[in-house]
């Protein structure tokens, strides 16, 4: 097992591949053209919030792209921005399945953003 840098998570793609990557790089890829509209500090803060949520609040170092996208949208929404990623749609559908913790995760992100 490798030791992850503090700014990284291991991302699982839809086809089951895993790759470690700094969260800020993934954020820029996921929000695409919206990255030009948002200032660098906003992207950094959203990246840091989502990283903190997964690593500290949930104790996870590995997440799916969909989970990360959904959390990123929530964090940006709490900062007053409406950014949409296609990956978040897939994660939202998965979160609505019985036994998932999607609603709990959304509530935790709102609380975390408020703090």
**Beta-strand proportion:** 5-15%
Number of helices: 6
Low-confidence stretches: 89-100
**Strand order, sheet with most strands:** 2-1-3
Task: Characterize the quaternary organization of these chains.
Answer: single chain
Distance between the termini: 33 Å
> Secondary-structure element order, as H and E?
EEHHHEHHH
Give the mean pLDDT.
78
Shape: globular
Helix content: 55-70%
Largest sheet: 3 strands, mixed
Number of strands: 3
* Overall radius of gyration: 13 Å
What's this model, at a glance?
This protein is mainly α and 115 residues long.
Properties at a glance:
about 120 residues, mainly alpha, three-stranded mixed β-sheet, 6 helices, 3 strands, about 10% strand
Structure report:
The chain has six helices and three strands. The chain is mainly α and 115 residues long. Strands 2-1-3 form a three-stranded mixed sheet. Helix 4 (65-78) packs parallel to helix 6 (102-114). The chain is globular, with a radius of gyration of 13 Å.
Helix and strand layout, with pairings?
Layout lengths: L7 E5 L5 E5 H9 L2 H4 L2 H18 L4 E3 H14 L7 H10 L6 H13 L1
Parallel strand pairs: 1-3
Antiparallel strand pairs: 1-2
Helix pairs in contact: 1-3, 3-4, 4-5, 4-6
């Amino acid at each position: 097992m490798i030791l992850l840098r503090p700014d990284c998570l291991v991302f699982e793609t839809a086809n089951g591949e895993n790759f470690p990557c700094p969260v800020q790089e993934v954020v820029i890829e996921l929000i695409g053209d919206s990255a030009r509209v948002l200032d660098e500090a906003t992207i950094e803060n959203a990246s840091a919030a989502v990283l903190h949520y997964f690593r500290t609040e949930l104790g996870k170092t590995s997440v799916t792209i969909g989970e990360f996208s959904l959390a990123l949208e929530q964090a940006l929404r709490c900062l007053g921005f409406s950014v949409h990623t296609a990956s978040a749609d897939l994660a939202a559908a998965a979160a609505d399945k019985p036994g998932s913790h999607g609603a709990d995760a959304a509530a935790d992100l709102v609380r975390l953003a408020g703090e």
